[in-house]
Amino acid sequence: MFTALLADDEINILNLLEKLIDWNALNIEVIGKCQSGSEAYQAIISRKPDIVIIDIKMPGLSGLDVVRQIQEEGIFPNFILISGHKQFEYARSAIQYGVENYLVKPINKQELTDNLVQIIHRIEKEQTSKDYKVMLEQQIKTNIALSREQFLKMLYLSPDLSARQPLEEINRQYGFHFVHDHYRVISIKPDTKELFTLPQYQILLKQIYEFITLKLEDYPLVTYGIIEADEIMLLINYASEEDLACSLASIFETLKNKFYSYCYITMGISSTSVNLFQVSFQEARIAIMSRITLGKDRMIDYNGLSRFRLKLNKSHLLDQFGTYIDTLNIAGVEKAISQLLQEISDESVSPVSIFDLFISLIQLLDEHLTDLYNKTEENFTFPRKQYVSQIHNSTSKEELVQSMKHIMIKEITSYEKLQYSKDSRYISLAKQYIYDHIDQNITLNDVAEVLFINPSYFSALFKRETGETFSNYITGMRMKRSKELLKNLQYSIADVSSMVGYQDSKYFSKVFQKTVGIKPSQYRKLYTN
């Protein structure tokens, strides 16, 4: 069995860590919980756990201090560092100590489990390896690759990053080979010619990434990349614009020829930066987004996008769609989407503004449907990530609009079907209640109260589902039952009247004659002789 030590200065976090995971299922025993760095340090020294989950920033001895001091003691447990979003710069310095497992608060159960499983596999591999030296060298290479990836993701996710480090220090820490020249970000987006599943698309991305990484070795560029948000993002360090232009043109043509059978390739290019920390991944993504106006299967330079000056007025469009969703007005949605296509067809409208609107519409649909489903007490899971990916993968304004139309109609229709099914259940329950209580004075309000729904809504629903009013249905059911009872001579007409909910037998006879066409006594004679 493996052993784990938990350390965080917040007792609630410690308790969460202990309860969040099925430790026995992972064959792990939690041997201690510590609320300070110094306490964790002493526990690691004395108990030598296999795994240490520790908050990176605690008063006094920090999590990083614990990592450093423990390794100076010649003890090398597997650390999982926990921190807030804003502490990445602080956290990444632990990479030089071989720490590769890192979680951001709030802690996600699946991510923590995945990290623990990864560590267990690593420990098992180390324990069974016959060549520890080779394994250790491979681990160093893996750590360097992971550290580089984390650094690039930090640049990608934090465009407003204020921290700075000397280039030489960055190269040393992360195994980069950057020089003091120019930087650009290149985004590569494949748009498949046929429908790909998500796993198939991820495989395609990986194949393109591996291919281009290998090809880039032949060019005078220093290049490192990541796969992020369905795109390949490359950070390129180069000496001259001429070298870059020639290299990218050659690489782009090679990519197009290699993967022509599967997809169209669009390459987005950011503006130039002379500072590594001011390079813009976002500009490269904006260039990719612009393919809905400029077309796919081409190179798009961010510097040439100044023509897109108009921005959409989101608020009135969101209000309009929100009303149509709440009222389940599919015709209104279709009309609004057709109008939207006309509005975004202007060549000067910013593609970023268009994507922003459509992502907001996905969020709006999620929020309004969630409210509707909450009223029904039905479980509802909205595939927002899938739909956002579908929007980002649209290659034209027409495709973007069709995708949104399909998504909205599909989700609204699903809710309508559920509501219709539920309405039908209401009517079935109402009919059963009427059948079981036909001998009583049943009112519409009585049945609505039993079903826990509004009487006015129930009245309209009953008419819509059955084609007749509630009172007419009750009368029809009573007459139907009375006909059956009249055939049994042991019941008097007064008995039958009472048994179908009429206390006044004369009134019953009057209603029977009006409905059936003859008096109850005549009906009895007719069907018992």
From TrEMBL:
Top-level lineage group: Bacteria
PROSITE patterns reported for this sequence: HTH_ARAC_FAMILY_1, HTH_ARAC_FAMILY_2, RESPONSE_REGULATORY
Matching SMART domains: HTH_ARAC (SM00342), REC (SM00448)
HTH araC/xylS-type domain ranges (all copies): 428-526
Function: May play the central regulatory role in sporulation. It may be an element of the effector pathway responsible for the activation of sporulation genes in response to nutritional stress. Spo0A may act in concert with spo0H (a sigma factor) to control the expression of some genes that are critical to the sporulation process.
Gene Ontology CC terms, in alphabetical order: cytoplasm
Subcellular location: Cytoplasm
Annotated positions of the 4-aspartylphosphate modification: D55
Record-annotated Response regulatory domain positions: 3-120
GO molecular function annotations of the record: DNA-binding transcription factor activity; sequence-specific DNA binding
Keyword entries, A-Z: Cytoplasm, DNA-binding, Phosphoprotein, Transcription, Transcription regulation, Two-component regulatory system
Annotated protein name in UniProt: Stage 0 sporulation protein A homolog
GO BP annotations listed: phosphorelay signal transduction system
Record has Phosphoprotein as a keyword: yes
InterPro entries in alphabetical order: CheY-like_superfamily (IPR011006), Homeodomain-like_sf (IPR009057), HptR (IPR051552), HTH_AraC (IPR018060), HTH_AraC-typ_CS (IPR018062), Sig_transdc_resp-reg_receiver (IPR001789), Tscrpt_reg_AraC-type_HTH (IPR020449)
Presence of keyword DNA-binding: yes
